[in-house]
């Protein structure tokens, strides 16, 4: 038998694994947990140990698992426990009798008292006794008895069982390993299938790490072929007495853990022989994670399979799988099964779909992705028509990147066993997102009126949900996914076209155009700058046709009245767009009388600035267009001028000098000189005399008292006509330059 048994004596079922193939039993805790065990009086739980008997005579007690354990598939086992035998004993016989650990084929119906150590009469299985009373000499001892068979001696005392090859009795260990005392002793019992005889167990027993048993035991009697039994402990007292206790019991019966208990595979028969061939070793990784750590064997109906890599079968077959732990630490697991079934091979028709992006007439299909069969190791060939498939011609050479429109292609599938099948692969297009071109309008940006600010994501290109949109300036960029517009929500652009790539949840895309239109600002054509007189007011009118008006004055009407000189703005709304238009009301510039030319009683008025045409007046009432004013009286006169804007006229006050045309400088004090001292109050007054050739003969200013007596250089000039000019600046804010021209006849009497 193959066994990996870890014998377990102690009283508590510590862990009972959820998996049927792995069991570990323990008695531990404080108080000891006895779940899964039957406690037979006088045994009882006493804090962290099981007390099998009290220190009285005539006691018997035991504890056993309440379910049998199958050790058929265990090559090796080990049991650990601690025992203590103490007590005062009896005066006549001292301490007795001892305790036993056993694995019995049948659950005990009763326990034997006295020298039987509680082991039932005629018990079958493995029994290990720790005996403290020699029933032959009635003396104290410490001795280990081992029996692998049937306890059928007189008094059911294994001390007297000497079945050849099945029993062993140690020497008396009382001198070196006394069993009675206040302290617990640690016991390790290990069994291993004898490789020289697979029916025998090699049993090793250590007490406090000292080996006391190490030999092979053959089953005898009814123990031959025994595959399951009950673990337990028992103890008894007779005429002697002792307290017998055990604790920290560990019994291990773990089998190799399987990932799964069964695997299934369908095979097609060879069309010639009707046989299918399976490599059973290919299933190993379905049972254990590291198959190389185990020895795995296969059988059908109990008959081993000798060629698992090339197993042939002609009908549905169940293969039993046994997994053996090469390290010998775990029991074998015979629970695996491989279900092999025969079925004529067929390939499955299927459909694959791909994107015909951007409404392309074709898509790229990976024909190899079509799941036409789950049989491992198949080969597939693809054809456009069934006729080509049957003839084996015109095979599709690029099945992983087959470009096509919606159609049907055909595949020939061949299994490793040579079975073939055909299937149709329907090629279809995945649905594209429903998208349309769109137009977006944006008001122009006032500072850059040819540009507008667009939110591209607001373009109504689709109503579908779950799609993604990316925006590009050109169709080529959208196709290549290059130069994506990074901020589509705040996109500044002129009127142009951009492109949106819309991708659906199935990763198909379509590209559409978004036309961007910058709304040209609508300005008022009637609102113009104005020029008014400084003290006047005017009306500003933006004209009709706008949806809203907002003036810088706060007014919301089409026009505003009574506005003075200044700069104003109006915000004009057309549709949803606004434009701000500025208008200036300027004050008219006054004309300036730059100079006056007086000849006799005629004045020529020279004007600068303002806006022509000018008008001229001597009284501010009657106006003329000519700048020559005639008929001026001698003395003070006012000259008025206004320009095109007819504002308050400017004026200057001038003096027309008295005229004197003849002097006779002969000393008679009558007309002896020209005297313009009356004009001395004028600024920059200068009186200059010229001869008929334009030569300056005399200049009279303040130093010469503005008089001329007909001399030049201290000498009298010749009798004749002379010309003169008088210039000055009027005493006004403009210092108007005034010039008076005249002539005089000089008669010098020699």
From TrEMBL:
Predominant location: membrane
Location relative to the cell: Membrane
Cellular component annotations (GO), alphabetically ordered: COPII-coated ER to Golgi transport vesicle; membrane
Protein origin, superkingdom: Bacteria
Membrane topology: Single-pass type I membrane protein
GO biological process, one term: carbohydrate metabolic process
Residues of the L-type lectin-like domain: 18-253
GO molecular function, one term: hydrolase activity, hydrolyzing O-glycosyl compounds
Signal peptide per UniProt: 1-22
Protein name, entry field: L-type lectin-like domain-containing protein
